[in-house]
Write a structure and sequence with these properties.
2 copies of one chain form a homodimer. With 154 residues, chain A is an alpha+beta fold. The first copy, chain A, is built from 6 helices and 6 strands, in the order H-H-E-H-H-E-E-E-E-H-E-H. The structure holds a DNA duplex (30 and 30 nucleotides).
Chain lengths: 154, 154
DNA sequence: TTTATATTGATAATACATATCAATTTCACA
DNA sequence: TGTGAAATTGATATGTATTATCAATATAAA
């Protein structure tokens, strides 16, 4: 099994456990949304609208509210994270590796999103939290600027 | 002159230069909003609504749209920064010291916002940007979690 | 002062997010 | 395998923050 397929299975398991722990129900719609999200949006940052439009083509009966609510469930269950890059839309991203937190560089010219991870930053943040007796639950780090190609064309 | 008064004067100068560079006009309304914002909201993170309500009490003729637009101008001119802590509202904060970037720890229980600055994090980010040939314009770092008092009461 | 241009403020329009609710589906339990 | 309580769905309405519109007004350059 490929690492990606393995990861997808792990998330599925986590989600199923979440469903039964919370006494929720598994439905065809949630299955479809899960498959689409974890099948086509790995490493991407999709808006609810985009995912809905995409799914609607194959499954016209699925409503916007369901996609919206299901993405919230993904976040609650810890298999997706919600991002906001300042354009007013919430974006969702499948979580690949829950151990390694990664961050984003956003080009203010072309809007392209680059990812990076950095251990030194992580340990700094843990220290800062500890120093302030703060129990770190989550953190977000975004760098805004010009990517190399947009720099050149200026 | 106190350091705070000095800072306020510096921001005023920056804003005036911005106004004349962009061929904009200085108005009574902008003066009022500047004074209120830099007089009462130092080190705070005010929403447009809050600032508007506050100003309306003393100057009932000033409209919401004007406060809204003026805060955008403050941001454009570099004397204020816009923040978003995930509650759907944009918050504005007067910039005290443009050399030292600071960040936020947000308690997910009580909503209180703590500030911190850290040189090591800053230099990490500069390195990361450099490595990726990215021209850093701005960056945001937020830590979400439980503050010490909310930890105890759990 | 005149005149071109920017600003104001009331309000309309937009956009994203969330709430509502009747019809339907799921699933625990008999 | 039915049955019924409870969750879910999807169409649509509502809420909320932001942005656009535009006539009246204020500003500042000539």
């Amino acid at each position: 099994m490929t690492p990606v397929a393995q990861m997808k299975m792990d998330r599925r398991k986590t989600f199923n456990e979440f469903i039964s722990r919370k006494r929720l129900k598994s439905t065809k719609q949630r299955d479809v949304i899960f498959d689409e999200f974890f099948g086509n949006y790995m490493g991407r940052h999709v808006t609810v609208e985009e995912l809905y439009e995409d799914i609607k083509r194959k499954y016209p009966h699925i409503g916007f509210a369901t996609v919206y609510r299901t993405l919230k469930l993904f976040r609650e269950s810890g298999i997706a994270s919600e991002r906001n890059f300042g354009d007013g839309k919430s974006r969702y991203e499948p979580i690949r590796d829950e151990r390694e937190h990664h961050h984003h560089m956003i080009c203010t010219e072309c809007g392209k999103i680059y990812e990076f991870a950095n251990n030194q930053v992580e340990s700094c943040l843990n220290q800062i939290a500890k120093l302030n007796e703060f129990k770190l639950e989550n953190h977000k780090l975004e760098i805004y600027g010009l990517c190399s190609s947009c720099r050149e064309s200026r």
